[in-house]
Amino acid sequence: MIKFCVDVEVGGETGGSGGQAGGAQGGDSKTECTYQKLDPKPPAGWPGWKGADPKTHDVYLYGCTDGGESNPDGFVVVPLGQTPAPQADPRELAQRAVDSMTLLGPDIASPRAAGTYTVGVPMWMWVNQSATTYGPNTASATAGGVTVTATAKVSKIVWSMGDGSSVTCNGPGTPYTSSEGMVQSPTCGHVYSTTSAANGKFNVTATSTWTINWQGGGQAGQLTGVRQTDVQVAVGEVQVVR
Fold first, then answer.
1. For residue 231, is it within any domain?
2. Rounded to 5°, angle at Cα 35 from 34 and 38
3. pLDDT of 14 above 80
4. Looking at the 3D structure of the chain, how many domains does it have?
5. pLDDT at 68 (0 to 100)
6. Exposed e or buried b per residue across 119-131, where buried means at least 16 C-beta atoms within 10 angstroms of its C-beta
7. How many whole angstroms separate alpha carbon 177 and alpha carbon 240?
8. What is the pLDDT of residues 163-177, one digit of tens each?
9. Structural domain includes residue 242
10. In a domain? residue 44
11. Does position 198 have pLDDT exceeding 90, yes or no?
12. Is the pLDDT of residue 72 over 80?
């Protein structure tokens, strides 16, 4: 039996504009792989040979672990007399790349904790966009000669408004300007029908879904991440003096 320790190197770059600055954090970890030569060899018609000639090649069964739940295994074919190169699972590398991105919850621009909002008046909701709070955010991880690159971006934000209702927005929202008057947001908004007087303020939660596409090592796939941010919002009503 042959045993290898594979060093996994993680690095990344970030993109985006506005809001908080962010970056992917690099790090190293070890994946341990063991290799067992199959003896006797499988027959020539075995699919695992992948066209290689059993007379001039050996085949090894390998299993890898990083000490956690990731335990990729499979077969590797090498020429006679050669030692198999350390293997790396692209799916594991994709997750390591994502872990290095430091993806955060939405950077809420509106509603603001310091703001005061009114029953019946449209509220515009939007978020600041940065690499760590909205994307795109890109990072790579390398091990055993395999490099996987992952790119993450928020695909939707679900706003729980604290009054029992929720709003799903498929973009960052549209910033409000005074020239808009009292019209509703064209992309992401809400109208309260009750005040927050009973509890002082409504607890508004913005939950973002990160869609992460990755490719490398001859494979490609998609991962999903969820992050959230809370803000306390006061909602009153207009007092009419008679």
1. yes
2. 150
3. no
4. 1
5. 56
6. eeebbbbbbbbbb
7. 26
8. 999 999 999 999 999
9. no
10. yes
11. no
12. no
